[in-house]
Amino acid sequence: MVTKQEEAVSRKIGRTIATKRRAAGFTQEQVAERLQIGNEAFSRIERGLVSPGIFKLYEMAEMFECGVETFLIEGSRRPTDQAGHLQQMLAKLSTSDRQMIVGIVETLSLRLGGKKSRGDS
């Protein structure tokens, strides 16, 4: 029997797969064909109704030109995984854009968390 937590993880992985597929410019049909599975089977993977096997994750990572860990990290609720994901995104930006994003995140964190900023001590 599949637990609610396992279902949630499958949905997150599926959403990440869908995002990466669209960013790489593939249709569901194209990916299904390359994975040698049916269109409906791939649709169920993207919807998180079934989990892809490890080998299929590796095939998709190669197809979408990303690391296989991307599918697991981007859907993770662990702060360290989320921080790693943010680090990967920030690394692609200019210094000024990174500073802007960090400022926005800090402002949101303070507002949502109700904590003082470093300069408010």
From TrEMBL:
CDD domains: HTH_XRE. Transmembrane segments: none annotated. It holds the Pfam family HTH_3. Residues 17-71 form the HTH cro/C1-type domain. InterPro entries: Cro/C1-type_HTH, Lambda_DNA-bd_dom_sf. Coiled coil: none annotated. This is Helix-turn-helix domain-containing protein. It comes from Paraburkholderia acidicola.
